[in-house]
Design goal:
3 domains; 344 residues; 8 strands; alpha/beta; 6-stranded parallel sheet; Rossmann fold; Zinc Finger, Delta Prime, domain 3; two-stranded parallel ribbon
Length: 344
């Protein structure tokens, strides 16, 4: 079964293949990882808190007693139903254990659910699950804009709330990269609007404008203005708070894309204010003046070059190579220093 593709993940979480005996859910987005793990747990066992069907094991406990996993999986449940064994905080210390487990094929139809953090491609735990015929590995990466639009629709439709296109676009561009935090922000906005209500752009800005997205703005705007010192401080804060480097790179991509669209309009004769007003959604008023100044240093050719650099950085961040934070920092600093040179 190996690593599930994005298109198969949702259907598997709702109805896991009966032949599958184990799943590894891992990745840098802790909120999405927990959501998916809980959804899969409910699909295996109607009540994930049922002590007669569910066993919770710490990774350290398994490491000390390799036979414990097979024993837990093989236990019969008192009132029928499939047994679920959940392992939290998995890591490569469990790689060899699971390789042996998949070779042993212990009796019973118990299901093992392992949650782990970000695991590189060379991870022994990932390799064990990806090589097993009766297991799956499910990655959890930062939400894309499309993912966020889908989440926005899910939360708002669940409360029968109408949301206009500008508000949805603003939210998709300003929610953070952690699925759990994004859902909390959207539920807060839904509570504000009330069941059956409506959400406008002003509502979205008021609700989410002061969230972690503002810290991302600090970094992105500093890079676009050539302020390397401010950029370094903003990145230090973001990474200290656990922000995903992919989220930072994608925020920079969105900002540079908008600068490119506006710069093209300026090249065709629009003034800066008209060009910025043409963007959808229009820039948040707190950054509109700064973007107007940035346009003087961002002709279309610079925006295209920066987008190429940022796309390469996103690919590099996802590889098992240099630390992701270092790759992200280097890309944004290169952009900032180039702008600074031209401003002198």
């Amino acid at each position: 079964m190996s690593k599930l593709t994005a298109g198969r993940i949702d259907s598997f979480l709702k109805a896991p293949d009966r032949a599958c005996r184990a799943a590894l859910i891992y990745g840098p987005d802790g909120g999405r990882m927990h959501e998916r793990a809980d959804a899969l747990a409910r699909a295996v066992c109607d009540d994930p808190k049922d002590a007669f069907r569910v066993a919770e094991l710490a990774a350290g406990t398994l490491g000390d007693d390799p036979d414990l996993l097979a024993a837990e999986v093989g236990q019969m449940t008192m009132f029928g139903g499939r047994r679920l064994v959940r392992v939290r905080d998995g890591g490569d210390s469990l790689g060899n254990l699971f390789q042996r487990f998949f070779k042993m094929k212990p009796p019973g139809d118990g299901f093992v659910l392992v949650e782990a953090g970000d695991l590189p491609a060379r991870s022994s735990l990932r390799k064990a699950f990806e090589a097993a015929a009766d297991a799956v590995a499910i990655p959890c990466y930062a939400d894309t804009v499309r993912d966020l639009h889908a989440l926005i629709r899910e939360v708002m439709s669940g409360h029968k709330i109408r949301i206009d296109d500008a508000a949805a676009a603003y939210l998709a561009g300003n929610l953070g990269g952690d699925r759990g935090m994004s859902r909390q922000e959207l539920e807060k906005l839904a509570l504000y609007a009330g069941d059956g209500g409506a959400v406008t752009l002003d509502d979205a800005v008021s609700s989410v404008g002061d969230s972690a997205a503002m810290e991302l703005d600090d970094a992105v705007l500093a890079a676009a203005e050539g302020d390397a010192a401010m950029l370094e401080r903003a990145l230090d804060r973001l990474f200290a708070e656990g922000e995903n480097p992919v989220t930072v790179v994608r925020a920079a991509q969105r900002h540079v894309t908008r600068l490119h669209l506006a710069a093209v309009r300026v090249d065709h004769g629009d003034d800066e204010e008209t060009a910025l007003r043409s963007l959808r959604p229009p820039p948040f008023f707190k950054v509109a003046d700064r973007m107007k100044l940035q346009l003087r240093y961002w002709p279309p050719r610079r925006a295209r070059a920066a987008l190429s650099l940022l796309l390469d950085a996103e690919i590099e961040v996802k590889k098992s190579g240099p630390p992701p934070e270092a790759v992200c920092r280097d890309a944004l600093l290169r952009i900032a220093r180039r702008v600074a040179m031209d401003r002198r």
